[in-house]
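Data card: per-record layout.
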Amino acid sequence: MVQFQERKMSPPSQPHVVWELLPEDFILPDDPVESIIQPLLAAALTEALDLAGLITATMMIATNIALSSNIDGKTVVKAPDWYLVSNVTPTDIGTIRRSYTPHREGEIPAVVMEFLSDTDGGEYSVRPHPPFGKMWFYEKILQVPIYVIFEPNYGFLEVRQLNSEGNYQIQPLDENGRFYFECLHLYLGVWQGQRLGQNASWLRWWDQQGKLLYWGSELIQQEKQRTEQERQRADNAELELVKLRQLLQESGLNLPDSEL
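The structure for this 260-residue chain is written out next.
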């Protein structure tokens, strides 16, 4: 009888990670965005935070800016659709970041967001070897605490959070379909409506009292409505004054305007 010897599989080796700045001659990918809604989603998230005065001087919010590291001697970059870093090292005046290296230039991102594409589903990839999957990179290399995936076509929001073992776990949303971010003291959820001519599902922020953080266009519209309401109140007051003057005249009284 032929006997087979059991072959023990050795556990996969841990990647060697070096947090080095992106080489100046490194050519960054120039991939086009996959839909017109993706940059609008990112801009809307940032705009609402800015108008609410919630972006501090130490923060960095970036869209499609490379997160850089060196894994096993190879430079690796991933450019999330949106991410937030709570504390970064300030750059010199006139210097514009073309990439960001955690631990060298500041903290790891507190939140990373990817807007789901219709192509390869790379946002879910846990590929542990080159070119490395996005989810694997965020989870195992960067160890980003919160990873958000949003499917704008169907308004599908999915939030993953690192557990104590360093693995992502899908988090439940509240009764309003929102998730609370401790780092911002805000809720993130899905809102259906129109912005910049696009009727779509949008990611929006709500405060702890459930109040929506507005975009600039909404604040302008609210100011127009307030101005119009004040104008109507003034017109109504003038009309009431005219009616009162007529009643007094009909009663034989003719008071000076200064007494009305």
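Known properties of this structure: Residues 216-250 form the longest helix (35 residues). Confidence is low (pLDDT under 50) at residues 1-11.

See the next section for split statistics.
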